[in-house]
Amino acid sequence: MKKVIYCLLILLIITILTSCSNERDKPVEIMISAAVSLTDALNEVKENYETTNQNVQLTFNLGSSGKLANQIDRGAPVDMFLSASSKDMDTIAAKGLIDESTKVEFASNSLVLITHRDNSTTINSFEQIQPEKIAHFSIGEPNSVPVGRYTKQVFERLGIWDPLQSKLVMGSDARQVLTYVEMGNVDFGVVYSSDTVITDKVKVLAEADDEWHESITYPGAIINDSLHKKEAQAFLDYLTSEEGKAVLKKYGFK
């Protein structure tokens, strides 16, 4: 009987040690809420980073920066926020939700006017937009989508915001606006310059003057409640390294 009990204890110890070993070998998951305009660049960054950092698994929660900021405010289990808007980062920073010492601007972007590749329009500047000649124009929803807020600022500056109201088709993020234009559902759209790198179904007609809208910068920061700050900081350092910057540049970011 004693022999049986001894054997069972040995098996129990082995099971516990094996379980602990497996837990140690399991990659640390870093949950990153990121602006959807970063999708393609981050997918390549993820592949590169995880190849040389096999103890880390990067998981992305993609969406408009405004919605992501609201999720973080409501307690979403996030380690890092990569925003397409300083305003949305500042919103959660004011509530003490980020580690201010980790905040860094890692990219910037520009605003472009696009149309379907088969559209024969001769427009080559934002100033040439004529609301009365347009049936449908897609932009991001200004209250929650940074690209929409920037677009509204441009249209107000040019005096065409009010005349375009009945023509606007709102997108939940820049990629949805891009899709509307790709499918020919709208005449024109405004997206980030980086969005146009991933498609051959649209053509860029013009780039907005930087003075017409607030600066389009991408800040990143670690969330105060993160349980993996060390690993998150290592990834943020990589994103701002020369290797990380090269990938961002490849996908149209400045």
What can you tell me about this protein's structure?
This protein has 254 residues and is of the alpha/beta class. The chain folds into 2 domains: 26-108 and 216-250, D-Maltodextrin-Binding Protein, domain 2 (3-Layer(aba) Sandwich); 111-212, D-Maltodextrin-Binding Protein, domain 2, CATH 3.40.190. The protein has 8 helices and 10 strands. The protein has helices at residues 2-25, 39-52, 65-73, 86-93, 146-158, 174-182, 229-239, 242-250; strands at 28-35, 56-63, 80-82, 104-108, 111-116, 137-140, 168-171, 188-192, 202-207, 217-222. The longest helix is centred in the first third of the chain and has 24 residues, at 2-25. The radius of gyration is 23 Å and the shape is elongated. Residues 17-23 have low confidence and may be disordered.
Q: Can you give keywords for this protein?
A:
five-stranded mixed beta sheet; D-Maltodextrin-Binding Protein, domain 2; alpha/beta; 254 residues; single chain; 38% helix
The CATH homologous superfamily of the largest domain is named Periplasmic binding protein-like II
Shape: elongated
What is the β-strand count?
Answer: 10
Helix-strand string: HEHEHEHEEEHEHEEEHH
Please list the strands of the largest sheet in the order they lie side by side. Answer: 2-1-3-10-4
CATH class of the largest domain: Alpha Beta
The CATH topology of the largest domain, please?
D-Maltodextrin-Binding Protein, domain 2
Largest sheet: 5 strands, mixed
* Ends distance: 73 Å
Strand content bin: 15-25%
Mean of all residue-level pLDDT scores: 92
Class by SSE composition: alpha/beta
Structural domain tally: 2
Helix coverage percent of residues? 25-40%
Counted by DSSP, the helix tally is 8
Radius of gyration: 23 Å
Known CATH architecture of the largest domain: 3-Layer(aba) Sandwich
Low-confidence runs: 17-23
